């Protein structure tokens, strides 16, 4: 009986994780609130929401299309010069802790970022990416 209960518990956890993953994908693909906007306009609207007080991590998790960082709230740690594309790097290394960049474009799409921490030549940054369609 214990084994059956444990199996049912594992099944429900797995199902909940899959459902959460599916909902996350639908939000990112559909972006229903922004369906009539260009990628740049979406990025600008999301940046404004952060400036108005919404948590950067929440916006990144819900909307960023960067598969490498969105699940971590857009966080990239220990970024050094030469690791990222030029436009990303320029923004990451000119801002002070807590500052939010303007929207900028790279070959991957439109971004904005916030510097979280500076340690010598290393930066921890959060960012949002909206890919070109």
Describe this structure in words.
By secondary structure, the protein is an alpha+beta fold. It folds into two domains: 1-30; 37-131, Chitinase A, domain 3. The protein is built from four helices and four strands, in the order αααβαβββ. The protein has a four-stranded antiparallel sheet, with helices on both faces. The termini are far apart. The model is unreliable at 1-27 (pLDDT under 50).
Descriptive terms for the model:
133 residues, alpha+beta, Chitinase A, domain 3, four-stranded antiparallel β-sheet, 4 strands
What is the topology?
Blueprint: H1 2-30, H2 39-51, H3 56-63, E1 75-79, H4 86-94, E2 104-106, E3 109-119, E4 122-131
Antiparallel strand pairs: 1-4, 2-3, 3-4
Number of helical segments with 4 or more residues = 4
Largest sheet: 4 strands, antiparallel
CATH class (first level) name of the largest domain: Alpha Beta
User: Could you name the CATH topology of the largest domain?
Assistant: Chitinase A, domain 3
Side-by-side strand order of the widest sheet: 1-4-3-2
Q: Which runs of at least 5 residues are low in confidence (pLDDT < 50)?
A: 1-27
Beta content comes to 15-25%
Structural domain tally: 2
Q: In angstroms, what separates the terminal alpha carbons?
A: 52 Å
Query: Any idea what the shape is?
Result: globular
Q: Examine the secondary-structure arrangement and name the CATH architecture of the largest domain.
A: Roll
**Radius of gyration from the alpha-carbon trace, in angstroms:** 18 Å
- Average pLDDT, to the nearest integer? 83
Structural class estimated from helices and strands? alpha+beta
The total beta strand count reads 4
The portion of residues assigned to helices is 40-55%
The ordered string of helix (H) and strand (E) elements is: HHHEHEEE
